[in-house]
Automatic annotation (TrEMBL), chain A:
Cross-referenced PROSITE patterns: COX2 (PS00078), COX2_CUA (PS50857)
Main location: other
Gene3D superfamilies, alphabetized: Cupredoxins - blue copper proteins
Record's protein name: Cytochrome c oxidase subunit II
Cell location: Cell envelope
Region spans: Disordered: 233-271
CDD domains with a match to the protein in the record: ba3_CcO_II_C
A GO molecular-function annotation: copper ion binding
All copies of domain Cytochrome oxidase subunit II copper A binding, residue ranges: 55-167
Acidic residues bias spans: 257-271
Transmembrane region(s): 9-34
A single GO cellular-component term on record: membrane
Organism in which the protein naturally occurs: Natronolimnohabitans innermongolicus JCM 12255
TrEMBL record, chain B:
Any one annotated GO CC term: membrane
Gene3D superfamilies: Cytochrome c oxidase-like, subunit I domain
InterPro entries in alphabetical order: Ba3-like_Oxidase_I (IPR033943), Cyt_c_oxase-like_su1_dom (IPR023616), Cyt_c_oxase-like_su1_sf (IPR036927), Cyt_C_Oxase_1 (IPR000883), Cyt_c_Oxase_su1_BS (IPR023615)
Descriptive protein name: Cytochrome c oxidase subunit I
Domain Cytochrome oxidase subunit I profile: 20-529
Main location: membrane
Keyword Transmembrane helix: yes
A Pfam family per the record: COX1
Domain of life from the UniProt record: Archaea
Species per Swiss-Prot/TrEMBL record: Natronolimnohabitans innermongolicus JCM 12255
Alphabetically ordered keywords of this record: Electron transport, Heme, Iron, Membrane, Metal-binding, Respiratory chain, Transmembrane, Transmembrane helix, Transport
Length: 271, 580
């Protein structure tokens, strides 16, 4: 076969170029440790995400000193949780799956980008150094509302970040005649691994009760605060419970006598 | 001049005219849809509901990259085979038969898509041209696609048949280069389109009709991309054929090297299929190793395109020197820049070279994470199939259509303006798309304006990007309409004669310089098959073992409008710099 000298030169240059590209990318993935979405995770039934302990409650979880895991569901046309909150200086592993059709989980302007395929779980580990706010979009067409599918990722300063959850159960109505008490059942969940030192402050009508507590890492502290209904007197009384920046509130009615005995269907007001 | 193609082969010219006509109708509709998208996305003009955007986008994709490109392909290939073998098809009825099947398939799919515009008919297929399950379109959409593909298979069979007949009469002769290109393209097409055929016939169609309950989304998606990368070469190779066969002649010279052209087409048979997983770098459920293999193969697939760049430029230089050009770069001035067919193809080649670099970015696994499914991707699409291919086809038509009609091209200088207008339009539109992609704007999105955040543009603003996209879109649309008008006028320009005659000059270095093994098609098919099996058997087996043949229990998601209710800164600034 007759090949012109220039052709030969070009051929060699082309091969060098190609091998160069492959080498660069190999270096990028092996030496720099830029990893890709792969088949690390087992498959999952997309119809049964509610029964999977990772995805029944999409959330961020702390797993190590500065290590977090985020379980994210993409579905038409939302992301859960939204916003996703993580602290600065953290390493977050995202586990992303889809409930219905193929979506994507793409943090705008970054290379944190993966397909979310029903039945599969994508994982990506990302480091967040500085506080910032990112948009999340779905960039895989998923139906007529695709353009509405967005979420947010907040990287918070360390002192603003926590994994605290406050929930309160309270009665709606309490009767004077039974010598009843108005009770607030308070649960403070600390999802972080460190202990949480905080104060629970409860107000019912004019009464204020405070309690300093230490909630151990990865556990829930429960307490009950009660006030005699008689002290409050007949009428509507607002109550509120605050723990750090979290507040729960509601209203309890003190009556003379309950109309019928449909007591305690739980005037719950938990989050 | 009376030695035109239509004089020599009037019956074949008629079929080719028909194929071009179909192709151009698709181009017209597709361009209108493109214009709507360009104005809608940028929120400049929104005559349709955003939910209808996806009906438009499905039409744009299907009509342009399935109908426009492939109908043009069969026209050009019919011309190439007839011209280079100097021979008619064995049975013209068969030839009309495959054309008819392709038309039928197109009509079925088009009906399913366009019915999405009205609530009066309970049919729609807003699934885009990639139709990823569990999105579900009307079965007619899938049936249409299958019928269309079967039509192209029969077209290939027809060309092989013509070649076998020719071989009987010309024992021991080398396959003429244009026919060689046609046959190798079709081999590549047979190997690759099996993927989409299996995806539709074995999984998606039975599921859309309700015969099977569920589907494995990763499996059908992988089968789609098994076909989805080679299909881009199916669009590209007819453009390559025109660059190798027609462009040297238009430049005033002859092809530099016949052997190298053959090598290039063989490389496409071998390498274009075992790379499809590079579209799935971000897919869970596929091991990194397979992605790595696809990446390596993809990089080698650059080789035939780099070789083509060499041959095309060398042939142009030869032509220019024949026309009296001199100097290192001075010869460029001696090229026939006033000839729209030449200038259009040269500009298409230029855009293709630029787009090739953006393709390398896509192919780099880890860089891909930045741009995957962002607007960058339609940027790449429009430089490659949307210009390298589409502009070459339009420019080629300025030479071919006079050959097929026996009429002189109407408005040669308007045609020159038309190709330049396209060039300018595509620079605006794709510049905006590439840059928009780098800042994370998603593709395939009716309203890329979000409540929760703003896109951060390093240089420029979102408003500027939108203006460029819309302006580019308008220019491209006008250019398309000009082209179609000139074609129509030429068709009726009866009392005239083409300027050029049909003969194609012999290459400088002819087939006698190449080893006969290049023409051993069976050998290349065998090697290609081995490569495909190596690249795909394990990934497919693993996908099936993970998700099951028919997948987990995902319920179908019919895309009926009613039923749903309703390294970045551097690149970015470089691109911004280029356009300022
Ligand atoms: C009149 C000129 C054209 C205009 C104004 C135009 C405009 C557009 C726009 C704005 C998009 C992006 C839509 C989105 O992602 O939301 C798009 C997508 C696309 N265009 Fe064009 N286009 C034109 C011509 C072409 C041509 C000639 C081809 C190919 C031969 C083509 C092939 C495609 C493809 C394949 C897509 C992607 C479709 C998808 O994501 O499903 N376009 N076009
Ligand atoms: Cu989406
Ligand atoms: Cu590809």
């Amino acid at each position: 076969m007759k090949i012109h000298t220039y052709e030969k030169l070009w051929l060699v240059a082309a091969m060098v170029l190609i091998v160069g590209f492959i080498a660069t990318i190999t270096y990028g993935s092996v030496a720099l440790g830029i990893t890709m979405v792969g088949d690390q995770e087992d498959t999952i039934e997309p119809g049964e995400l509610g029964e999977d302990e990772r995805f029944d409650d999409p959330r961020v979880e702390q797993v190590g000193e500065n290590e977090y895991e985020a379980y994210v569901i993409a579905q038409t046309f939302i992301f859960q949780p939204d916003p996703i909150e993580v602290p600065e200086n953290s390493e977050v592993t995202f586990y992303v799956t889809a409930r219905d059709v193929i979506h994507s989980f793409s943090v705008v302007g970054t290379n944190t980008n993966t397909m979310a395929i029903p039945g599969e779980i994508s994982t990506m580990t990302v480091e967040f150094d500085e506080p910032d706010e990112y948009g999340i979009v779905c960039n895989e067409y998923c139906g007529s509302g695709h353009h509405n599918m967005e979420g947010e990722l907040h990287v918070l300063p360390e002192d603003e970040f926590d994994l605290t959850e406050l929930s309160v159960e309270a009665d709606d109505e309490v009767a004077l005649e039974d010598d009843d008490e108005v009770t607030l059942e308070i649960a403070v969940e600390n999802g972080q691994l460190e202990d949480l030192e905080t104060t629970i402050e409860a107000e019912i009508g004019d009464e204020t009760v405070t309690e300093d507590v230490t909630v151990e890492g990865d556990s829930t502290y429960e307490t009950t605060i009660s006030v005699d209904a008689a002290d409050l007197g007949e009428g509507d009384h607002d109550w509120s419970v605050t723990v750090d920046d979290y507040e729960e509130s509601g209203t309890v009615t003190v009556v003379d006598q309950l109309e019928d005995e449909t007591e305690d269907d739980g005037g719950d007001d938990d989050e | 001049m009376s030695n035109t193609f239509v004089d020599a082969f009037p019956k074949q010219a008629r079929l080719i005219r028909q194929a071009f006509l179909t192709s151009f109708v698709a181009l017209g509709v597709g361009a209108l849809f493109g214009l709507i998208q360009a104005l809608h996305r940028t929120d400049i003009f929104r005559p349709i509901e955003s939910t209808t955007y996806y009906t438009v986008l499905t039409g744009h994709g299907v009509f342009l990259v399935i109908s426009f490109t492939i109908f043009f392909l069969v026209g050009v290939y019919q011309w190439a085979v007839t011209e280079s073998l100097e021979r008619e098809p064995v049975d013209m009825r068969f030839t009309w038969g495959w054309y008819g099947l392709m038309v039928l398939g197109t009509l079925l799919a088009a009906f399913a898509i366009l019915a999405g515009f009205t609530d009066a008919i309970d049919v729609s297929a807003d699934v885009l041209f990639t139709f990823y399950a569990p999105l579900q379109g009307h079965p007619l959409f899938y049936i249409g696609l299958v019928v269309f593909v079967v039509g192209t298979w029969l077209a290939g069979a027809d060309w092989f048949r013509t070649w076998w007949a020719w071989k009987g009469d010309n024992p021991g002769k080398r396959i003429p280069l244009p026919t060689f290109m046609v046959l190798t393209t079709m081999i590549m097409w047979y190997i690759s389109s099996i993927g989409v055929a299996v995806a539709i016939l074995a999984f998606i169609l039975p599921w859309s009709i309700g015969l099977v309950e569920s589907i494995n989304p990763t499996l059908t998606r992988t089968l789609f991309w098994y076909f989805g990368h080679p299909v881009v070469y199916f669009w590209l190779l007819p453009a390559y054929l025109l660059w190798y066969i027609l462009l040297p002649k238009l430049s005033g010279g002859r092809l530099f090297s016949d052997p190298l052209a053959r090598v290039v087409f063989i490389l496409f048979i071998l390498l274009s299929t075992p790379v499809g997983i590079h579209h799935q770098y971000l897919d869970p459920g596929i091991a990194e190793g397979f992605k790595f293999i696809a990446m390596t193969n993809t990089m080698f697939l650059l080789l035939p395109s780099l070789l083509t760049a060499f041959t095309v430029v060398a042939s142009m230089e030869h032509g220019a020197r024949q026309r009296g050009g001199e100097g290192y770069f001075g010869w460029l001035k001696s090229l026939p820049w006033r000839e729209p067919a030449f200038t259009g193809m040269a500009l298409a080649g230029l855009v293709f070279a630029f787009g090739g670099f953006t393709g390398i970015v896509n192919a780099g696994m880890n860089i891909n994470y930045l741009v995957h499914n962002s607007l960058w991707v339609p940027g790449h699409i429009h430089t490659q199939v949307g210009t390298a291919v589409a502009l070459t086809f339009m420019a080629g038509s300025y030479w071919l259509v006079p050959q097929l009609t026996g009429n002189r091209l109407v408005g040669r200088s308007v045609a020159l303006f038309q190709v330049l207008l396209w060039f300018v339009g595509i620079i605006f539109m794709t510049n905006s798309m590439y840059r928009g992609g780098l800042i994370g704007m998603p593709r395939r999105t009716a309203e890329p304006q979000y409540d929760g955040f703003d896109f951060e543009v390093a240089a420029g603003s979102v408003g500027e990007l939108n203006a460029q996209l819309a302006l580019g879109g308008v220019l491209l649309f006008l250019s398309t309409m000009l082209f179609l008008a000139l074609m129509l006028l030429t068709l009726f320009n009866h009392d005239s004669e083409p300027i050029d005659e049909r003969s194609i000059p012999r290459p400088l270095s002819g087939p006698e310089d190449s080893p006969p093994v290049l023409d051993n098609l069976k050998l290349w098919v065998a090697i290609a098959a081995v490569l495909v099996v190596l690249a795909y058997s394990i990934p497919l087996a693993s996908i099936v073992s993970r998700g099951g043949l028919f997948g987990p229990d995902v319920s179908p998601f019919p895309v009926f409008i009613e039923s749903i209710g309703d390294a970045r800164f551097v690149l970015e600034s470089i691109l911004a710099g280029i356009t300022r």
